[in-house]
User: Fold this.
Amino acid sequence: MTTERSAIVTGSTSGIGLAIATALAQSGHDVMLNGLGKPEEIEATRARLADQHGVEVLYSGADMSSPESVGEMVAKAEQAFGKVDILVNNAGIQHVAPIEEFPAGKWDQILAINLSASFHTIRHALPGMKSRKFGRIIQLASAHALVASPFKSAYVAAKHGIAGLTKTVALEGAEHGVTANAVCPGYVLTPLVEKQIPEQAKARGISEDAVIRDVLLAAQPTKRFVTVEEVASLVLFLAGDTAGSITGAIIPIDGGWTCH
Ligand code: NAD
Assistant:
């Protein structure tokens, strides 16, 4: 079954991106998955989403740190679906280390995947959206687009950059039916966060339990992780018709973290 709207969700083989792709498929959208992982597991996810929801689900293994691959991914989706209506820039990585020990190569990689990839997906997808007078660009930023934490220099810089890019795209798309918004989760328990618990413990010289209690959830007044379903439901709303006047918004979904 081909549906009215089609979407690309970068980094959708895991965590938040997978929940977003699932929510979009559940709501009848064709979806292109993207991300790293074991081919057989990705194929199982692709087939499950397509079968359960009766939509077309494709996969691109494009590396978001390669501008050329990003262009190929967007072209593949446009060719297969006839159009890309919804672009969710979600792929992201993290590295936690004091700035004087932060590997320069990691800085470049984080900026490429967490920031520059969004510029490249947008520059390829926007012309089609403008010509059809409809587009939804949703960036998975972070509470770290609004505030900083120590030891996350590249991530915080990239996410603040995403906020600026989002506002610029919102202005350029405004008269063409294209909205651009940034969703800013607090801590969500996904592989990205699970991996940084031991890194944070090392950088701070404390136990992993203490990282969860005194570092991660200390900042979050609700004292619980945000869920992937909560983030996906906000993205789904922003992707819909009734969100047409929300553009250029940098929207926290962080259990009150950035109220501090
Ligand atoms: P995750 O590690 O579970 O998923 C990241 C996804 O990005 C995976 O599908 C991975 O394969 C993909 N990816 C990584 N490098 C890639 C590359 N070079 N090319 C293509 N895909 C690549 O992480 P997550 O927690 O689900 O994070 C998703 C997004 O949400 C990220 O942008 C992250 O910064 C943001 N975010 C996460 C949290 C959190 O607490 N988990 C909080 C705020 C923002």
Notes: The longest strand covers residues 178-185. The beta strands are 6-9, 30-34, 57-60, 86-89, 135-140, 178-185, 250-253. Residues 11-17, 34-37, 63-65, 90-93, 113, 140, 142, 185, 187-188, 190-193 surround nicotinamide-adenine-dinucleotide (CB under 6 Å).
